[in-house]
């Protein structure tokens, strides 16, 4: 395995469930909704994960379209996923804490047949580092101070 790029983000827990995430010179706020104890000042981590895979599909879609000389007028990727919140609350331990699966609906505005769109999305997915990281186990190493 050859690593050609390292990506880094840092999350800092602020008040209640408000978290500031910094990467390069950008920052986003992640929070829980009011019903979950937050102040609803940003997306929650689950929504960020779904947004990340949707954004990566669109990003790689643009790259693949340019490489294949496809006039991509637009692309929308909507992601839905379900999970058992009883696990993350510590009330159940017999299921996994993560999403049980994700459904991605990709709408492509380009002069392509349905078969061409499906092949295009397959190519995009095969090159998307976020969807690949979700589809395959990615080792996590924790260093605790």
**Tally of structural domains:** 2
Q: What string gives the helices and strands in order?
A: EEEHEHEHH
> How would a textbook summarize the main sheet?
3 strands, antiparallel
Count of extended strands: 5
CATH class of the largest domain: Alpha Beta
Total DSSP helices: 4
Which percent bin holds the helix content?
25-40%
Shape: globular
Can you tell me the residue ranges where pLDDT is under 50 for at least 5 consecutive residues?
Answer: none
Structural Rg: 18 Å
Rounded mean pLDDT score: 95
Biggest sheet strand order reads 1-2-3
Q: Supply the helix-strand structural class.
A: alpha+beta
Strand content is 15-25%
> What is the distance, rounded to the nearest whole angstrom, between the alpha carbons of the first and last residues?
29 Å
Describe this structure in words.
The protein is an alpha+beta fold and 145 residues long. The protein has 2 domains: 1-42; 44-135, K homology (KH) domain (GMP Synthetase, Chain A, domain 3). The protein is built from 4 helices and 5 strands. The protein has a 3-stranded antiparallel β-sheet with strand order 1-2-3, with no helix packed on it. A two-stranded antiparallel ribbon has the order 4-5. Helix 1 crosses helix 3 (114-127). The radius of gyration is 18 Å and the shape is globular. 14% of the residues are buried. The mean pLDDT is 95.
